[in-house]
Amino acid sequence: MRVHQVFILKTGVLLVALSFVFSGPLYGQYRSKYPDIPIVDVHVHPGNVTDAANFIKVSEKIKENYGSNLAFWVALSDPGKENAEQMKMAANGRMLFTASQMSPHKGLTTTSDEVIAKVRDDGYIGLKFWFGPPYRVLKEDEEGITRVDDPRYEEFFAALEKANILITSLHIADPNQVYGNRGNWLKDPVYYWEQIRAFENVVAKHPEMTIIAAHGAWLVCQDAQLDFLRYMFSTYPNFYVDISATCQYIPLVNRENLRDLYMEYQDRLLFGTDGGRVGDDNMVNYISGRYANFFAILETNQVVSSGYFGNNPTKGLDLPREVLEKVYYKNALKLYPGLKEAMGL
Ligand SMILES: [Zn+2]
């Protein structure tokens, strides 16, 4: 093949690739049909005052460029009472915080009494309990707690249940994809299902404790997992999920199956992103576009070139207005203490 033929071939491939990349409503092209619906992101991790202040800039940028009303954030990493106050101010009062247990594999670093006091006295709205795969936390051969239903947590959960403390976020397991394409997270399916079962035991044992699992309880990467998610919803009325960091997995499952699940369990889903550091104006622009992509996936049936994370072209779910209202804020209003007042609704 001659040089100019190679060039033409390469240019052709590039043009096809570019037309594919720009075929979705990416950055600047999407305009929300629902500027009046307030959106609460129930899963973020701002690290400091700058991040919190820049979330307001993100909200302004989104309103200007995409029309959506990103109104409020629930921060899941406890920065301490004083920092939380300052960050809340930087975010114009549009942010609430949770107590957090980020590495319980090594044992609890807080007591149930301390969590209850934070919620009752310091304005925290619940507890974040991170329980990813233990090997992400424990070194090889290090002893630790490997299942979330370990009896050593029992008293802790029972006390929170009795005090009516919301488990604002429980991260369980990690993404487990199909055979041949396991991805980079929890590759071992047997271990994955052990973690999911252990989580189910906790949900079953504490029927009065409302648990919002992070990331769709990671039951969103295979159609079989969606079946189990349905089983969880239909069996346990105290079980909810946020959809943070899940939109990049939508192309892995049957779109109609996932859409049906959203329709059927629209009262149990909450919007979230798992976003965090927004250190400068470049990040403000970038994060705003990512949010808009996620909104487009939920609100339209167009092919979007990526989600909040990832770069997989994704056909939107085209959810009706009443479902979007619930996922964006009405379900959160029902569950999160003080949110309604904080939002001025
Ligand atoms: Zn998170």
Structure description:
The protein is α/β, with parallel strands linked by helices and 345 residues long. It has one domain: Metal-dependent hydrolases (TIM Barrel). It has eleven helices and eleven strands. Strands 4-5-6-7-8-9 form a six-stranded parallel beta sheet. The protein has a three-stranded parallel beta sheet with strand order 1-2-3. α7 links the parallel β7 and β8. α2 packs parallel to α3 and α4 packs parallel to α5. It starts with a helix and ends with a helix. The N terminus is likely disordered. The site of zinc ion has 5 residues, from loops.
Going across the biggest sheet, name each strand in turn.
4-5-6-7-8-9
Calculate the mean pLDDT score and round it.
Answer: 91
Bound molecules: zinc ion
The structural class is alpha/beta
Q: At CATH's second level, what is the architecture?
A: Alpha-Beta Barrel
- Please state the oligomeric state of the protein chains shown: single chain
